[in-house]
Amino acid sequence: MSHRAGFVSIIGKPNAGKSTLMNALVGENMSIITPKAQTTRHRILGIVNTEDYQIVFSDTPGVIKPAYPLQESMMHQVNGSIVDADLILLMTDVNEKHDESDVIERLQGSLAPLAILVNKIDQSNEETVKQKIAYWQEKLQPKAIFAISALHKHNIQSIMDFIVDNLPEHPAYYEKDFLTDRNDRFFASEMIREQVFKQYQKEIPYSTEVIITSFKEGDTLHRISAEIIVERDSQKNILIGKNGEMLKIVGTYARKSMEEFFQRKIFLELFVKVIPDWRSKKNYLKQFGYED
Ligand SMILES: Nc1nc2c(ncn2[C@@H]2O[C@H](COP(=O)(O)OP(=O)(O)OP(=O)(O)O)[C@@H](O)[C@H]2O)c(=O)[nH]1
């Protein structure tokens, strides 16, 4: 059989479980996962290679109506990955109460085959799952519908089989040892951002960006320095916490994630910096990698 390769985009609302699925499919923790919506801000490629095929997955930010320029950039990345897709996986939460018209609108115009994934069935019952499947069947007539639990890796293999069956015949797009388009600095910054999303409430996570200012690689130890950027002095105080306690917690957990990811000891230094309104300023968004 000849070689197959293609781009598979995972699209859906915030919190549907896209990053959890991508990690389950790729078998690595490429995308950070938190209980808060809008955790993923960039399109991230995760690549699965075998001798016979190459699947290039795109995890994408959740579809929202953008309220500020950072979110506009996030939605450009969603559109880009829909345009590129050979196959689209539409991720939906079985318990989603709102209609998903904004997601469906974005998919219009795409000719790529569509599979719908009804996720989090571990938090549902047979009757509801059946109703959801019937709903999506009628609404979009997809090529396939899967009831899954990304978290418990339930039905993941059926999705993989479907994808491989539907991949176009094509030579590999990337070298076969290539697993992602992102570098170690990106993953390091994401592991810090993950802790900011987990440890703080309200607007702090959404007002935060993480910049790696120094990354010195060693055989047994990586030395990493990072700046956590917030929008206001009040946020800086919350981030640091009384006697620096909160920042210490972020640093400890982020360091542990990094040690596991890089399989090295990590020395991590964190600084907090205020850049007023960075999420709305094109020059900062560009500098932070959001505008292409
Ligand atoms: N119970 C249950 N929870 C899940 C499942 N899949 C994902 N989750 C949880 O849902 C939350 C959101 O998961 P993510 O994978 O970050 O969702 P996402 O769609 O990438 O979110 P955004 O980055 O906001 O677009 C996390 O707390 C996950 O653990 C599932 O199958 N069952």
TrEMBL record:
Task: Outline the segment boundaries, as ranges, of region: G3.
Answer: 59-62
Q: Which residues bind GTP?
A: 12-19, 59-63, 119-122
What main location does UniProt list? cytoplasm
Region of interest called G1, as start-end residue ranges on this chain: 12-19
All copies of the KH type-2 domain together span 192-276
GO CC annotation: cytosol; plasma membrane
| UniProt key word rRNA-binding | yes
**Pfam families assigned to the protein according to its UniProt record, in alphabetical order:** KH_2, MMR_HSR1
Q: Which Gene3D superfamilies match?
A: 3.30.300.20, P-loop containing nucleotide triphosphate hydrolases
Region annotation (G4) maps to 119-122
Q: How does it sit in the membrane?
A: Peripheral membrane protein
**Region G5, annotated ranges:** 148-150
Specify where the region named G2 lies, as residue ranges.
38-42
The keyword Ribonucleoprotein belongs to this UniProt entry's keyword annotation: no
**Domain Era-type G as annotated: residue spans:** 4-169
Family stated for the protein in its record: Belongs to the TRAFAC class TrmE-Era-EngA-EngB-Septin-like GTPase superfamily. Era GTPase family.
Described purpose of this protein according to its UniProt entry? An essential GTPase that binds both GDP and GTP, with rapid nucleotide exchange. Plays a role in 16S rRNA processing and 30S ribosomal subunit biogenesis and possibly also in cell cycle regulation and energy metabolism.
Describe, as the record does, how this protein assembles with itself and its partners.
Monomer.
Any idea what this protein is called? GTPase Era
- Identify the species of origin: Mucilaginibacter straminoryzae
- This chain is encoded by the gene named era
